[in-house]
Amino acid sequence: MSTKLVTVTLDDKLETVKEIFDNLKFHHLLVVEERKLLGVVSDRDLLKALSPNIGSARETYQDIASLNKRVHQIATRHPIVLQETATVDDAIHLFNTHSVSCLPVVDLNARPVGIVSWRDILKNLRINPTNT
């Protein structure tokens, strides 16, 4: 689990999300309001929402305007979550049951404390092959 969380709010612009993804090695951002988890935005969600012409010679005003969309327009709301007391086996079960690429880890008050990706699971299984 990664505990280095980067969060955005529902009203943040996609320009902010793009800057975070461009400058950090993250594939998912947690959407938080008043310390509560409300959703997740993936780099794929962002790519679908933005014009492919941004930063190219064909860029138009309308392309640039797609950066002014807000997180609430593309975020996955009410994501599948993992409780902080869960095991690696619990995480594997959720990945196999739901079509998700990350699992926010939350405490009993729905506050994010970490995030687990399928890559984290693979790394853990390689290091600890019997740890489930």
From TrEMBL:
<feature type="domain" description="CBS">
    <location>
        <begin position="1"/>
        <end position="56"/>
    </location>
</feature>
<dbReference type="Pfam" id="PF00571">
    <property type="entry name" value="CBS"/>
</dbReference>
<dbReference type="InterPro" id="IPR051257">
    <property type="entry name" value="Diverse_CBS-Domain"/>
</dbReference>
<dbReference type="InterPro" id="IPR046342">
    <property type="entry name" value="CBS_dom_sf"/>
</dbReference>
<dbReference type="InterPro" id="IPR000644">
    <property type="entry name" value="CBS_dom"/>
</dbReference>
<protein>
    <submittedName>
        <fullName>CBS domain-containing protein</fullName>
    </submittedName>
</protein>
<keyword id="KW-0129">CBS domain</keyword>
<feature type="domain" description="CBS">
    <location>
        <begin position="75"/>
        <end position="132"/>
    </location>
</feature>
